[in-house]
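Collaborator request, handled under Task 6.
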Amino acid sequence: VQLQASGGGLVQVGGSLRLSCQASGRTFRYNTMGWFRRAPGKEREFVAAISGDDGSTRYPDSVKGRFTISREKAKNTLYLHMNSLEPEDTGVYYCAGSRFRAVQTSGADYHYWGQGTLVTVSS
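Structure tokens returned to the collaborator:
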């Protein structure tokens, strides 16, 4: 199973980026998928998740209203649309797939991880 994240880069404060995550080797059509990030010198943190059953989403307060997670089940692809980016959003972003259908916010409930893509927000 592979999760290939892409779309990271350097962006100015207030800018936007769209991250993509292509899954292969296993379908995640009915499973929760999510995004996490690790800022320099900090622990990994939850960013967004979308459930595999009803498509419900979950975000922490730090990104709510600015980030949107979506998926194309037919393409086994996950997206993260990021708007109004702030320097605090800088970090390596990882996509992850879970064996669970219900939305999950803990990294411990994800079983497959991508390699990460770097997002740098400059002020």
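The cover message to the collaborator said: "The chain is about 0% helix and 50% strand. The CA atoms of residues 1 and 93 lie 18 Å apart. Please let us know whether this matches your experimental observations."
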